[in-house]
Amino acid sequence: MSPTPRRILIAGASGVVGQAALAHFEGLPDTEVLALSRRPPKLQSARHLAADLADANVVDALAALPPVTHLIYAALYEAPGLLEGWRSQEQMTRNDTMLRHCLAGLASHPLEHVSLLQGTKAYGAHIHPMRIPGLERRPRDPHENFYWLQEDRLRAEAAARGFAFTLWRPPVIFGPSVGAPMDVLTTLGVYGALCAALDAPFAFPGGVCGPMDGVDATLLAEAFAWALDAPAARNQTFNVSNGDVFQWDHLWPDLTAALGLRPGAPDPRALATWLPQHAALWHQLRADHALASPDLATLVGDSPIYADMLFGLGRDRAPPPTQLSTIALRQAGFAACRDSEIMLITQLRTLAQARVLPPWPLSA
User: Both 346 and 198 in a single domain?
Assistant: First the structure.
């Protein structure tokens, strides 16, 4: 009897991480990719199972799939309004239920490895100033978090069923997507496109910022692929980031020049308010350029709220730092890195090439 082929299920396939994982794994030899999400992925073409992991019926749908050997779990429920939900018991319970349904549906599958996303909220960054740098070896930060619910569930399932897992803690994740709830990249691109259409300066819309780190979603996908077979990744927790730091207001002039936009003095504005005010202009840009993207509200969702926070809107002093150490991951054998400025420019051009954004100068 021939061995089970490598078949990877990507849960949350329509999000920032899921889209990047699909693109990466679809290009690997001897690998079949299955995509699971409520909405079909916009940028890739893997076999898609349209399902809501919060619905118990998904268990039977997953059980009926061909044998799955690896799971990339990038599914996430964010409550409307985004920030308020980060300490919500309902949101914690729902995210735990989603993972429970997914693992139950794969109970009869020959599962070998699971990658599960966490993030800087593991260090309490959304509640209090975190100890810098964030280190995986420190004890759990004592706060309620769906990360802990999911992690405890995954550890118990892995011990009982004999598969391995890797927990990932990225900072802000950047990648092309459509309609994801924390997609600052697309929000940034839409803001730039509207400024270009208005012949207005691409003014920095935030307040006082501090240094931050981020991760390219494609680098995260590379890390997932490395962890499939790396003994050093088995049952481990890793921070993962680009490996550099940047500061939005310091980066802005170079970003403006690289994208071919008109510079201007900082002009604080809430993108969560400003973007919807220009929904009609976005509709016109979609028609003029035959864009593949949806209406403005569907495209960016609550991501402008996230962008306003990251840009320091309303702040008169820098926020507490949130930098993560990636030494453990490097010592385990994964050393890939990215230049964050080049990453942002490249990804915005990718969105234009995919006709999610109009072909303004950034596509040159």
Answer: yes
Contact 211, 321 (CB under 8 A): yes
Label residue 273 exposed, middle or buried (CB < 10 Å: 0-12, 13-18, 19+): exposed
Q: What is the pLDDT along the chain (364 residues), one digit of tens a residue?
A: 346 679 999 999 988 899 999 999 988 888 999 999 988 776 556 788 999 999 999 999 999 999 999 999 999 876 665 445 456 678 889 999 999 999 999 999 999 999 999 999 999 988 899 999 999 999 999 988 999 999 999 999 999 999 999 999 999 999 877 766 678 999 999 999 999 999 999 999 999 999 999 999 999 999 999 999 999 999 999 999 999 999 999 999 999 999 999 999 999 999 999 999 999 999 999 999 999 889 999 999 888 998 999 999 999 999 999 999 999 999 999 999 999 999 999 999 988 988 999 987 865 5
Split into its structural domains, the chain has a count of 2
Residues 85, 145 within the same domain: yes
Domain housing 137: 6-172+215-239
- 191 assigned to active site: no
- Note whether residue 353 is domain-resident: yes
Query: Taking the model in full, what pTM does it have?
Result: 0.92
Residue 245 to residue 211: CA distance in whole angstroms = 6
Q: Which of 123, 147, 191, 306 is catalytic?
A: 147
